[in-house]
Amino acid sequence: MRTLCASTLIGEFFVIGFAGLVAMKDPDLAMSTVWTVSGIAMFFCVLLCGLVTRPGGIQLGWALQIALILSGFFVPTMFFMGAVFAALWWASVHFGRKVDEAKARFAAQAAGEAGAS
Q1: Per-residue pLDDT at 115 exceeds 80
Q2: Is 52:5 a contact under the CB 8 Å cutoff?
Q3: Rg (CA), the chain
Q4: What spatial distance separates the first Cα and last Cα of the chain, rounded to whole Å?
């Protein structure tokens, strides 16, 4: 699960950076505000790569997905991109858990076969 979730978060890192470039063009937004918010969100993406397997890591990832969707109020394209990444996040968590369960089953079977020999 960690690999799939981390891959999604790194993709979000880049999307947030590009969204910051787009938001810079908005005359109503101060450049310092845009880059402070974008920088914090990008840092959060990298931090979550390491926290995803810890308690609460998945929930923090969902909070990031919601924030990404809500950023569409400032950069309208982010409504779509946020929804896409929320779907990727769900898939990463859902299928990552299935892969982890399958790995555990195969490891248990291999240990049982090695013990029987």
Answers
A1: no
A2: yes
A3: 18
A4: 32
Cβ atoms of 42 and 67 closer than 8 Å:
no
Q: In angstroms, rounded to a whole number, what is the distance separating the alpha carbons of residues 113 and 27?
A: 67
One-letter amino acid for residue 17 of the chain: G
Amino acid identity at 106: F
- Distance, in Å, from the CA atom of 45 to the CA atom of 49, rounded to the nearest integer, reads 7
* Alpha helices for the chain (secondary structure H): 2-23, 31-51, 57-70, 77-116
d(CA 52, CA 61): 8
> Model's pTM, two decimal places?
0.86
Query: Contact at 8 Å (CB) between 69 and 82?
Result: yes
Give residue 98's pLDDT.
93
CA angle (49 as vertex; 56, 61 as ends), nearest 5:
45
* Cα-based angle 83, 55, 19 (whole degrees, multiple of 5): 30
**Which residue's structure tokens are 């898939």?**
91
